[in-house]
């Protein structure tokens, strides 16, 4: 059996990693992963992937000598990774046993190259596709021959400057000197280095990557991206051009910067996908298309930032997708052979409720139908079964299957694993319109009724664009403004054969939040949920400062876990800003950080004003719970949807929604000026919440959806 060693310096994307591991295992290989990223933080995700071993590489140089640490400070990233890892005995032993060693990201390239010197029989590669190709050739040869293949010779040479041919040494020395890279003059010099005419392609690519690395050292992130995109403009090969543009985009994304040439990178990947699709090379076409979608819907652009291109100009942002022949082939509705059938009379409805790891909004639904006399319930968590988890998020395999007309084997695997569930169920209710929805609609559901619920997050991902909604009977939205956005983005949802659409509030037992509030609670502003940039707690801090100018008794209570800075650079940057703003306020007692809690009703009994400071929401559960508790609701006019036909202003009663921190402060000061006015404002808010959103009301709407009852 072939031993394969993956080396990574960044946390691999779980779906892509699972797909890659599966492809190696399909070829009879055992796959081990070694990484300098924090393995323990993603242990649960990695446990769902069929790896044969995971090894934590040293994450720093604290155990090395001072001379090594000083050397690391002035070394490129790749060399620093090697200095960290070279004395790890377990890592070296695994590398000596490996027949194929693969760098999963640029930071691992130098380390893999050095390992190939210790193990001269191993094949060393940068990237999964190149390694798979080599593995296939190796199997055909039946012998082991050493090959060290990297896309850029300058990425692994001990002296990159001397390894680049075709560019005058003087130009390279001047253009890559670190002080020069920090200057405007340097920007012109490196541009001349990577765009000089007559330079061989391999030399141009190597120079661009080296210059980009130097620009990153000098803190010129956008300059590094421009080095790569400038070189790409001189390269005729579609695949290589797309790769360089991709690297340029990811250079900026990694630093939380909105990439200036995103459309160029997406367009290059799509052009390659179209070219390969035209000649029937579905595997390569799907790789390119998958990457185009990944970049187009990268979470930094839509989820971790203060705005989104899908809100600012969705048509422009997705224009290149609409003209791509490969994407049109993937998104073509395939329909179903037979319509959904009514369950046979004389027995309960067989209802399959399913999701992947996220059952946050299903607890009341499951409890109701578990004991319902007209329902036989089964619950399936796709994440709890490795085989199902793997196919549920295998985006590239889904794309390849659709490009190939269902002939790749992926569809057969989905049939094998999902058909028993579909044959049993009369109705499938799939929560979250993400990977599992795309997976399930790969196959014809037969006569089983398919329902998918889409919350808010999914609207800013690629998954609705990869879901065949012609095989979905009912699409459930949690709010009208989310429905408006998604149907504007996905053409099939507006045409004939589109699923029926429904608006159903989340299942919330709001009556348990009705508790007495002490008089002093009217001075406590509450924000429930601060773990995402989308919650924008800095807006709430601004409101707090404004009301404290009038009365210093006002405080802000923050409920929930903190943002994880490892989510993205944009998240880390926002958290730093938030921490700076909170530090003096916490010290003075103006802000109280309560952290996560299992007793939200208890916390809300001490909150007199409930805030929704979010940039976007589907339906803000924390806000609705606060309103039910008789706290005064103050809702920001969520910027992602403000001014549209449907928004926070149409979701909530008049007077709840404000357009600015100033307006929010005025509403709070007016309504809480006396205890009597505060209680008079909170009482009607509680009545509305209970009458509109409590589970006792919403449950009947679910009955109508599933059973057609009154």
Short recap of the structure:
The protein is α/β, with parallel strands linked by helices. The protein is built from 34 helices and 18 strands.
Spell out the blueprint of helices and strands.
Layout: E1 2-8, H1 14-26, E2 29-35, H2 43-47, E3 53-56, H3 66-73, H4 77-85, H5 89-97, E4 100-103, H6 109-118, E5 123-126, H7 128-141, E6 148-149, H8 160-163, H9 169-176, H10 178-181, H11 184-195, H12 201-217, H13 221-232, H14 238-253, H15 262-278, H16 282-296, H17 299-302, H18 309-317, H19 319-322, H20 325-331, E7 349-355, H21 363-370, E8 375-381, H22 386-392, H23 395-403, H24 410-424, E9 427-431, H25 435-440, E10 449-454, E11 474-477, H26 480-489, E12 500-503, E13 524-528, H27 537-548, E14 555-559, H28 569-588, E15 591-595, H29 600-604, E16 609-612, H30 621-628, E17 632-636, H31 648-651, E18 657-658, H32 661-671, H33 675-693, H34 695-707
Parallel strand pairs: 1-2, 1-4, 2-3, 4-5, 5-6, 7-8, 7-9, 9-10, 10-11, 11-12, 13-14, 13-16, 14-15, 16-17, 17-18
Helix pairs in contact: 4-6, 9-11, 11-12, 11-13, 12-13, 13-14, 14-15, 15-16, 16-23, 27-32, 30-33, 33-34
What does this protein look like?
There is one protein chain. The protein is α/β, with parallel strands linked by helices and 710 residues long. The protein folds into four domains: 149 residues, 3-Layer(aba) Sandwich (Rossmann fold); 173 residues; 160 residues, Rossmann fold (3-Layer(aba) Sandwich), CATH 3.40.50.2000; 183 residues, 3-Layer(aba) Sandwich (Rossmann fold), CATH 3.40.50. 48% of the residues lie in helices and 12% in strands. It is built from 34 helices and 18 strands. The strands form three sheets. A six-stranded parallel beta sheet has the order 3-2-1-4-5-6, sandwiched between helices. Strands 8-7-9-10-11-12 form a six-stranded parallel beta sheet, with helices on both faces. Strands 15-14-13-16-17-18 form a six-stranded parallel beta sheet, sandwiched between helices. Helix 21 links the parallel strand 7 and strand 8. The protein starts with a strand and ends with a helix. About 5% of the residues have low confidence.
